[in-house]
Structures are given as structure tokens and as C-alpha cells.
Amino acid sequence: MAATLRRALMAARRDLGTALRAGRDPASARARVQVAKVALGERGVPWWEQTLDQRRERWEHGLRELTG
CB neighbours of 39 closer than 8 A, spacing ≥ 6? Predict the structure, then answer.
């Protein structure tokens, strides 16, 4: 799951850069970056302060948000 979230984060970052370079609204890509970063523990409660079950729950929630 974490690997899937990292791939989603990288894709969202690429989309953000593409939107900025093209002069388009980057809000959607920025929102996806935020969801992925929270799910991975880069924002919010750090991943190392969570149990494996808590991390897994956060990963699953993030994946549900990203895949709609």
C-alpha cells in the first residue's frame, strides 16, 4: 500500500508541475499531493508515532480518497 501511495504522490507532483507550466489551475493536483502526503505520514501525525494498524488504516483511507 505504501508503494502505491508513493507512486500516487509522484504522479500528483508531476501533474502539479505540468499544470503550473501550462498555466492551468493546479488545485486538483495540489489536493492529491496533500492526500498522499498525509496518508504516507509526511504531514499530520508522523508515521513512526503510529502503530502498524494505524498506519494501515491511514494508507487505506488515503487510497480510497485518491482512487475515488
Answer: 5, 58, 59, 61, 62, 63, 65, 66
Residue 33 belongs to domain spanning: 2-67
- For residue 5, count other CB atoms closer than 10 A to its CB: 21
Tens of pLDDT, residue by residue over 17-60, are 999 999 999 999 999 999 999 999 999 998 899 999 999 999 99
All three cell numbers of 3, joined, read 508503494
Per the CB < 8 A criterion, the answer to whether 63 and 5 are in contact is yes
pTM for the model: 0.88
Which residue carries 480518497 as its cell? 65
For residue 35, report the phi and psi dihedrals to the nearest 5 degrees.
-60, -45
Number of structural domains the chain divides into = 1
